[in-house]
Write a sequence for this structure.
């Protein structure tokens, strides 16, 4: 899986979580390298730009990692 290798090489293991509506950075998540670990559960976040509220339920590392893409030289997951 060439793409995954590229992703791993590009960044340390921090993924930025950004608002999918306005692209505002919400928080950063540092991978613990355990796909089954429940990373974020019942976390309520408010976007400071567009005021959208997101509630993350049972987000595992796999969900965060697989949903992420490279943007601006960083790993970014839109939520
Ligand atoms: Zn927003």
């Amino acid at each position: 899986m060439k793409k995954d290798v590229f992703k791993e090489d590009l960044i340390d293991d921090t993924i930025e979580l950004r608002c999918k509506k306005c692209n505002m950075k919400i928080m950063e998540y540092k991978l613990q390298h355990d796909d089954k670990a429940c990373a974020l559960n019942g976390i309520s976040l408010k976007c400071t730009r567009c005021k959208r509220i997101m509630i993350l339920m049972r987000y595992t590392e796999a969900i965060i990692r697989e949903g992420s893409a490279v943007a601006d030289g960083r790993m970014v997951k839109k939520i």
About this structure: Residues 19, 21-22, 24, 47, 49-50, 52 surround zinc ion (CB under 6 Å). The chain has a mean pLDDT of 87.
